[in-house]
Amino acid sequence: MTKSLKKLLVAFGAIAVLLAAFFLMGPFYIVNEGWQAVATRFGGIVSTRTEAGLYFKVPFIDQITTYPRLVLSLDGDSQRIPTKENQFIIVDTTSRWKITDPAKFYRSFKTLDNAYNKLSDIIDSSTRTVITQNRLSEIVRSSNIINERAAVSTVSEDDEAKEIESLVNVSTANESVARGRSELCRQMTAEANKLVPEYGIELIDIVPRQIKYSDELTESVYNRMIKERNQVAQAYRSLGEGRKAEWLGKLENEKRTIQSEAYRKSEEIKGTADAQAARIYADAYSRDAEFYAFWKSMESYKSTLAGYDATYSTNMDYFKYLYSADGRR
């Protein structure tokens, strides 16, 4: 083996050792799908990677910080907020957001925990700003569907509602909603998005997860609701009693009308029957007056004498058929 060949082999060996040492120092890094990375050198950003792949870095000098590129969620803290009517409510929100500029995000927060803290403050502030400017009904409802009458609604039902309201100091109608919860959520998001772009963040939405009265007002509100519902219930009972009396009166009038008509018809029928009976009696009397007198006397005896225990005298014209069928004693 010649000297030049030995030198060539030594050179190749040295290069192989250097390459092995270079790869052992980790000159490459991988950005996985759904993630993004920021490469820094001595505290300054040298590059950002938002696509998945294999990338080069300077070993031992460059530092790689990765952030998720997916949509993230943030559950805010419950906070006590007054509405436009000065009713204090407890609002608990949840939000969705994502990192759109990893370089700005790194300069602003470095870590996700710092971003969560800052974003929570921004969301709480925008939520408070919007809620204090609106009524409670706007916050808890999204439409006026509760106020819309069904197609089968009648005028009598509207009159009934007005009559109920006249009996109590409680309105049975619900407040109309001008914007609603969905629009207020968009306002909250727009208010927060005025601040977050400088941090490399896009806030997708803010949604109230829970809305309730504060503890000190809950009992008084429930008591007031119970009192109002009791008033409305009593009003319905009074209205029902009035309607009952009205229908009973109509029923009694109809009953009297029916009875009067029935009495009139019965008297007409009786009159007709009496006339027919009188005509029959007259016909019978005209054919055999003596038999008719005898027959009527027998019927009179049957109905009259049955009520007496004794008869002291029969010496009268009334008893002329009692002992003799021809009327002679």
Short structural summary:
Helices cover 52% and strands 19% of the residues. It has 329 residues and is of the alpha+beta class.
Write the layout of secondary structure elements.
Layout: H1 3-24, E1 28-31, E2 35-41, E3 44-49, E4 53-56, E5 62-68, E6 72-75, E7 79-82, E8 88-99, H2 102-108, H3 112-131, H4 136-140, H5 155-167, H6 180-193, E9 201-213, H7 215-287, H8 289-304
Antiparallel strand pairs: 1-4, 2-3, 2-5, 6-8, 7-8, 8-9
What is the count of β-strands?
9
Number of H/I helices: 8
Helix content: 40-55%
Q: Termini distance?
A: 189 Å
For the structure shown, list the relevant keywords:
single chain; 329 residues; alpha+beta; 4-stranded antiparallel beta sheet; 8 helices; 9 strands; rod-shaped
